[in-house]
Each structure stands twice: as structure tokens, then as C-alpha cells.
Write a structure and sequence with these properties.
about 500 residues; globular
């Protein structure tokens, strides 16, 4: 498991570096104005109808079953791949056609606060993005096959190729004065990814032919469906949440949609770099583990995620304005954009550590066919998020969305820790890291002010956490364990 984690972490670093460049470029060239808000809305409109279904069908249904079949019955594994590939293609084509035909109505539903020009540009973006939906859907399947073979190359490179496409598209959009080039860069990236993924899948012995293998695939598709019929409610919940969040954002402030995405980009960096490798590796390996091996692997993973997640949550909370100014305040990203983005980032950062734990823990439970528990955890977290947004947004404005995201993250992570199970040492480690995070926040609040400057802030932050890391034996041991995973994959 941890050898795959190493590949994904290193690949994710490259992808996230390009992602940072992509977000900075977008902020500098377009700020939080018409183009930025319209494209961010169109991305949500593109992903909401199908992304969650594909993710849960592949990760929760296909990957664990395929991982077992590949070593026990390769013929059934190939048949399962071929039929699920066909199902994803047909479903994605149908959804893409819906997006093309009803793009304007869909954009207006998601953003009732948008004006006519923003709705028109958003619908144009949606129609262009829809072209890539079949490629987007099958790339997830190719990645799962590659991971089951112990490679992970597609998963590691996916973010990089996507970011490169968007960087080139953003530059062309600015130079040519045609915003649709941004969406075009995304489309080209996924065409290339799907071509590469198909070649990799064929190289691993897969076939796209379904005509001679239905009998072999039938029972396996039924097993996947049994897992998916529980998991299917997770994307439904997430889609409802995303829809309500976009609607609220478009009403409370004209720039809230893009500002929320910029704030989330900083916090989601941790999820992509840290939680996703553990979660993805767990899906492809934990289905074959004994109960004792599963608890040991999950506890080891959680300790590493807590070591990173809790301190970073505290740093993002205290330094949100520093970070936003340092990253984004250039060009079209002015003072107004800084203030709204940093307010959102400070609020949502409180739950970042929970997003890490919840993301990985949910995948660990899915690998053990405990999908009903994943559904309950997700439902509680999402309903809490929705309740905060709907009840407080009109009174407290933009910051409400950040608070709602924080509540979601804390519940998601806490419930995942409880259901997966923690040994005593892991629980003690959790309490210790939280104690130091609270102490850090108190010290910074008492001894530091914004006028001291960004370098002073990061200097004080680095000294504090280095002192904690090497003065606490338990934290030092977990840090050394993380280094061992990154160096040797062990």
C-alpha cells in the first residue's frame, strides 16, 4: 500500500505545483470578475451531474472488486472492465447532451444571482466543457486499472496534465480576448489523458469488447451495483450541497463563487497532496487485508494525516490574509478580492484536518465494503453544511460559507475516525496535536499582528512547529515514519 502512496504523493507534488501556477495565473489575469465567476460556475455545472457518480462507481464499486478479481479470475476482471467502460461512456454521452441543450437553464438554476452577461458566458463555457465529459468519465476507470497493477502513473499525472491544459487555455484566453479558450484547454487535456489511459489499460490486458463476455461480467456487475446502490446517495447529497452552495454564493456577493474556489484551492491542496494518495492506495489494497492489517494500516495513515492536517489548519486560520496576499494579490486580483477570499479561507480552514481524515477514512471503509457507514457519515456532514448555509447566509453573508465548510470538515473527519477505529496511541496523538495547534493559535494571536509582515509570520510559525516536532517524541516518530514512506514506500 505505502509504495503506491509514495508514487502518488510525488506525482501529486508536480501536479499541485502546476495547479498553483494555474490558479495564480487565473487570479492575476481575471481576478474575481465576470470571466472567473462564469468559468467557476461552469465547472460546477459540468461536474455536478456525473462526477460523484463516476467517482463512487469506480472507487467504491469497481476498484475493490477488480483488485480481488485481477489475481483470482482475470477473465472476469476483463469482462467487468469492458462492461463498466461501456456503461460510463453511454451515461456520459447522455449527460453531455443534456448539458449542451440545457446549458442556459442549468446555469441560471445554479446561480440565480447572476446577471444576463454572466449567465450567457457560463452557458457557453458549459457547452464547450461538455465535449470532454466521456473522456473525463473513462479516465477514472483507466486510473483504477493502472493502480491495481501497482503503477499509479495515470493518477499521479492526471492533475498535471489537466493543469497544463488550463494554463495554456488561460493564456490564450487572455491574449486572444476569447474566454472560451480556458474551457478548450480542459477539453484537450482530457482527450490526451483518455488516449493515454486507453493504451495503458490495453497494456494491462484489458479489452473494450463486450460482445463475448456478458456471462462473465453479469455476476460481477451485480456485485458492483450492490455496492454502488448504497454509494449512489453520496453523490446525490454532494450535488444537492454544491447546488445550494452555488446558489447562496451567487446571492450573498457577486464575487463569492470565484473567491470561495480560490480559498478552497489553498485548502484542497492538502487533500490532493496528502489524503488522496493514502485513500487511493487504500482502495486498491485494503480489500485484501486482514482485519488486523486494516486497522494497523488505517491507524498509521491517520497519524500521518493528523501530523500534517491539524498544524496546517491552524496556520491557514491564523495566516489566511498573508497567504491570499502572497499568492493572489496581483493584476486583476485587487483589495476587494483579497478581503473576501481571506475571510472565507480563515473560516473554512478550521475543518481542513477533518477533510483529510474524512476523505481517506471514507475510502478505507469503502474498501472493506462498509459503504452504508460512509453514506451516514457523508449525510450528517452535508446536512450540517446545508443547514448552516441556509439559516445564516443572509444574516452573516460570505463568511457563512466558510463556517459551513468548517463544520462539514470537522464532522466528516471526526465520524470517520470513530467508524474506522483508533488504537489508544493514535487517539493520544490526536489530542496532543490538537493541544499544540490551540497553543500555536493563542501565541500568534497574543504576540503577533499583521503589521509585523509576512516573513515574520512565517518565521515565527516555522520556529514554533520545528520546536514542537523535535521536542515531542510521539510527533517526531510519526514524522520519521512519513519520511520512510516517501523515501522507500514502506
Amino acid at each position: 500500500m505505502f509504495s503506491v502512496v509514495r508514487v502518488l504523493v510525488l506525482g501529486g507534488l508536480v501536479g499541485k505545483m502546476l495547479g498553483v501556477l494555474r490558479e495564480l495565473l487565473s487570479a492575476w489575469l481575471f481576478g474575481t470578475g465576470l470571466v472567473a465567476n462564469s468559468y467557476r460556475l461552469s465547472q460546477s455545472a459540468y461536474l455536478i451531474p456525473l462526477h460523484g457518480f463516476v467517482s463512487d462507481a469506480v472507487n467504491g464499486g469497481f476498484s475493490p472488486r477488480f483488485s480481488v478479481l485481477k489475481s483470482t479470475d482475470p477473465i472476469k476482471a476483463r469482462a467487468l472492465f469492458a462492461w463498466l467502460h461501456l456503461i460510463l461512456l453511454v451515461l456520459s454521452i447522455v449527460v453531455a447532451a443534456f448539458l449542451v441543450v440545457f446549458s442556459t437553464q442549468w446555469a441560471r438554476f445554479l446561480a440565480p444571482g447572476f446577471g444576463p452577461s454572466a449567465i450567457a458566458l457560463s452557458s457557453d463555457f458549459i457547452r464547450v466543457l461538455a465535449i470532454s465529459l466521456p473522456s473525463y468519465a473513462v479516465v477514472s476507470l483507466y486510473s483504477a486499472v493502472d493502480l491495481s497493477a501497482g503503477s499509479g502513473a495515470i493518477s499521479a499525472a492526471r492533475a498535471s496534465i489537466q493543469s497544463l491544459g488550463l494554463i495554456i487555455g488561460t493564456l490564450l484566453a487572455w491574449l486572444m480576448g476569447q474566454p472560451l479558450f480556458i474551457a478548450g484547454g480542459f477539453v484537450v487535456a482530457y482527450f490526451l489523458l483518455s488516449f493515454w489511459g486507453a493504451r495503458v489499460a490495453l497494456g494491462h490486458g484489458m479489452s473494450f469488447s463486450v460482445f463475448d463476455c456478458f456471462n462473465n461480467a453479469r455476476s460481477e456487475l451485480i456485485d458492483v451495483w450492490r455496492s454502488f446502490r448504497t454509494l449512489i446517495w453520496i453523490p446525490v447529497l454532494l450535488q444537492v450541497h454544491q447546488t445550494i452552495e452555488r446558489q447562496v454564493a451567487s446571492i450573498v456577493h457577486p464575487d463569492a463563487i470565484s473567491a470561495l474556489d480560490y480559498a478552497r484551492f489553498v485548502s484542497d491542496t492538502l487533500v490532493v497532496l496528502v489524503a488522496v494518495p493514502f485513500a487511493t492506495a487504500g482502495l486498491s489494497t485494503m480489500a485484501r487485508m486482514s482485519d488486523a492489517e486494516f486497522i494497523a494500516g488505517a491507524s498509521r495513515s491517520f497519524r500521518v494525516l493528523l501530523l500534517i492536517g491539524v498544524p496546517v489548519s491552524a496556520i491557514f486560520f491564523q495566516g489566511s490574509e498573508f497567504i491570499v496576499r502572497l499568492l493572489f494579490q496581483r493584476g486583476a486580483f485587487g483589495e476587494g478580492s483579497v478581503l473576501i477570499t481571506s475571510d472565507l479561507m480563515a473560516a473554512l480552514s478550521v475543518g481542513v484536518w477533518g477533510q483529510l481524515i474524512g476523505y481517506a477514512g471514507g475510502r478505507f471503509l469503502s474498501a472493506r465494503a462498509r459503504n452504508a457507514e460512509v453514506l451516514v457519515i457523508t449525510a450528517i456532514s452535508v446536512f450540517a453544511n446545508i443547514a448552516v448555509n441556509l439559516s445564516l447566509a443572509r444574516e452573516f453573508g460570505v463568511a457563512t460559507m466558510g463556517v459551513a465548510a468548517a463544520v462539514n470538515g470537522i464532522l466528516f473527519g471526526g465520524l470517520a475516525l470513530w467508524r474506522v477505529g483508533l488504537d489508544k496511541s493514535c487517539f493520544k496523538f490526536l489530542l496532543q496535536v490538537i493541544f499544540f495547534a490551540v497553543l500555536y493559535c493563542l501565541l500568534v494571536q497574543l504576540l503577533f499582528s499583521f503589521s509585523d509582515g509576512v516573513f515574520s509570520f512565517f518565521g515565527v510559525t516555522a520556529l514554533f512547529w520545528l520546536f514542537v516536532l523535535f521536542s515531542s517524541r510521539r510527533m517526531k516518530d510519526v514524522f520519521l515514519d512519513l519520511l520512510a514512506i516517501l523515501r522507500r514506500g514502506q
